Amino acid sequence: MDFDCFACMLVAGKLFPGYAMLMPGKLQSEVEAFYSLHKDYFSMSRPSQVPEGTVEELVLVDCNNWKRIYPFNPAHLSPQAKIRVYDHHQQEDAPIPGAEYHFSSNGAAVTELVMLAAQEGLSFSSFEATVVLLGLYSDTGSMSYQSTTPEDLRAAALMLEADGNLSIVREYIEAGYDGKLDLIFNELMQVAEIHLIKGMRIVLAAIVVQAYVEGLSQLTVRLAQVHNADAAIVIAEMENKVFLIFRSKSDQIDVASLAVHFGGGGHKGAASATIKNVHAEAIKAMVLDKLDMLVLPSLLVRDVMSSPVRSISPATPLATASGIIMRFGHTGLPVVDGERLVGVVSRRDIDKAVAHGFAHAPVSGYMSRKLLTIEADATVTDARKLMIEYDIGRLPVLEKGKVIGIITRTDIIRLLHGRDVGGNMGNRYLPLTNEISIPEKLQQALSVEHYRIISQMGELADQQNLRIYAVGGIVRDIILGSDNTDLDFVVTGEGIDFAARFAHRIGASCQHYGDFGTATISLADGSTLDIASARREYYAYPAALPEVERGSLAEDLVRRDFSINAMAISLNKDSFGLLIDPFQGWNDIRKKQVRILHNLSFVDDPTRIIRALRFCQRFSFTLESETERFMLKALEEGLLSQISGERLRVEMQLLLSESFPFDLLKKYRVLGSIIPGWHVFNGYQRMDELLSPEVAPMRKGQLWIARLLWMTIGQSPKVIAELGERLKLTRHARLMVINFNSWLITCEKEFIVYDGASQSKLFYLLKSLDYEALWTVYAVSDAVHRQYIDHFDQVLRHIKPFNDGKSLVKAGIAPGPHYSGIFNRLRDLQLDGQIKTLEDENTYIQKHYAELMKGGK
């Protein structure tokens, strides 16, 4: 039992008063030392003291399996016993049947229990708080392990507020080694092996110890520190058992996944296993065989680099180089003579030289000629080590001797620390965890056929030495578990050529758009695959359409609107399912928030304002605080007024085709930024409820147009007049807006008081309405008037006279404009039941011949 488990026992005792605390196994040496001094405080029992069949309720902490609490076993339980489990380890094999599991992803298991205690208002004495801090600090490496969460820190803060003693924590957590442990550590050092796996440094040592000793976990941590390793594995054979201790300080190494293969468990940063009747060397061979699975796929330099590289010649004036750097936000530029890399010049050096009056001097005099480069297929970890070792800020990236990109210090910093570090671009690798398995979610989210297709795409990309990724909405919706019909892919290479080859391979049609570097493959099931070359873009002025050119995956993701849409999943075999998350989009999904990628995002493209509200409404998300601030600033500056009508129409069409964001539009007054005076009225609040395909079954027409018509109700004539032009509506849509509002003025009151007496009157009240307008009226009507509209749509609008023009000619009525009046009269009589058959109609024509000759009036 370690300090975390020990602390869990204490807090569980407070949460479940009256329960007995059982100590099933041995205590770690440092826990034993603490317990021996403070045992009078604890009332611990052994499983042997518990009669079989008597336990009514069982609470397990820091474990989730029977074997972890041996010799306690199911025989101790009563037939109806209730079992609760509180743990932060991976779910092990053979879970306890009927147990109520409470798993957390915290670095320490005690964190979850502390938070529950806080919710119940339980207080902690100084001693209890110190015990909890021992658990928190031991299992999080004093809050330094990658598995440490904000909740761990909050729990620690609560304990410090309760006067927990950090001096005691330091005494036990940082306890020195006795002589016996020093001897064992020296032996570990002598047999230690370094293995480089996917760019990660792993130290492995296997020894045989004659007698059982405590403290192997401390030695494992120390071994990793001495060898500067990303992870350490110690295999120790003691007393007919082999003990495996795993420790990791890298987010890319999940030691628990390996411990599970040996019947053990733990979490990503720390795990262990114990095996009986086997030798250390045999276990070592098994560990080596599975070592490759320990390290999650690495990001390669080509995944992060900026490409194609923007370079200059040695003769380029410094002023020109400065302009390029300012325009594209680079921190430096490679200097190329022909195809040969001859130097690198930094923004800092350019700025200094220009400031000293050397703007017209060539860069050759100020560039750095001592070159250090890196291959495209090297790992990002390799790049980081080079930058640290040689104290350089950028590395030109080579492939077959040619410069194909550049990776910068900013990229590396952002990779390690996320977005809030300044700079323009970076990538953050999000490893696969127990909470999200991308390959598995891919298979769950896609149909069998689509999953087969993306696998084939990865195979073709491998054959062509290309990288291919699923990007954007499909990645977001896979993580959310939402339906998605968008199948978008990015190729770091020639996307159109790849799409053509893939379409030929699967026997599908392909249409390409050369100006944009995109192609669409149409599949037999009616779905499409959109494939594009990775590209970068920049905006010449606010609200401009972006200028686009070829780029890297990193640059392709940074150009997107929000963090939740700026993720990619690798489809190549060597990294299938690798989630690339430059801007912590997955974390924003967990926080249920929409966040822009950079401060000028709404300035670059103000339509993102409408898009942000749409995503908030669709996923029940909120705007991240800084995103909200920048959006309000963009609205205040009137940036939506600079957007073309065509682009606004597209965004409004998408907005009105989904759940209507009434509260958001009203809160931020977005409509008034599109057309001055356009307001959100309270009547719009029920648009989702009343104007939907389920409630108002539109047999024809477009839902978004119907909702747009609803949004003209109550508006000023000026707003209605400007609407068509501002949104660049089609001529037909503009007429719909005009006709609908004319109807509201001339016919609405009559329709409201209509009592069903005259079918022809109902026909004339509604006949001028287009389908969209008709269903808007349906949506805001009561049940009786909805029946009238249904009757009009299904019956009345289809009624026509029995006679046609030829029949009237035979009856002796000469053709002319009066035919229209005649047919209207005959239809009205039929609507009101005065004409029911062809004979009735012919009789009427003969009887009223003179009247009909005058136009049917």
Describe this structure in words.
It is globular and about 125 Å long. A hairpin with an 8-residue loop joins strand 22 (535-538) and strand 23. It is built from 39 helices and 27 strands. The protein has 857 residues and is an alpha/beta fold. Residues 418-436 have low confidence and may be disordered. The chain starts with a helix and ends with a helix. The strands form 8 sheets. A 7-stranded mixed beta sheet has the order 19-20-21-18-17-24-25. Strands 6-7-8-9-11-10 form a 6-stranded mixed beta sheet, with helices on both faces.
Structural class: alpha/beta
Strand content: 15-25%
Uncertain spans, ≥5 residues at pLDDT below 50? 418-436
Cα gyration radius (Å): 36 Å
How large is the count of helical segments? 39
Q: Major sheet: order of its strands?
A: 19-20-21-18-17-24-25
The N- and C-terminal alpha carbons lie at a distance of 100 Å
Helix share bin:
40-55%
Note the overall shape.
globular
Overall number of strands:
27
Largest sheet: 7 strands, mixed
- The overall pLDDT, averaged over residues, is 84
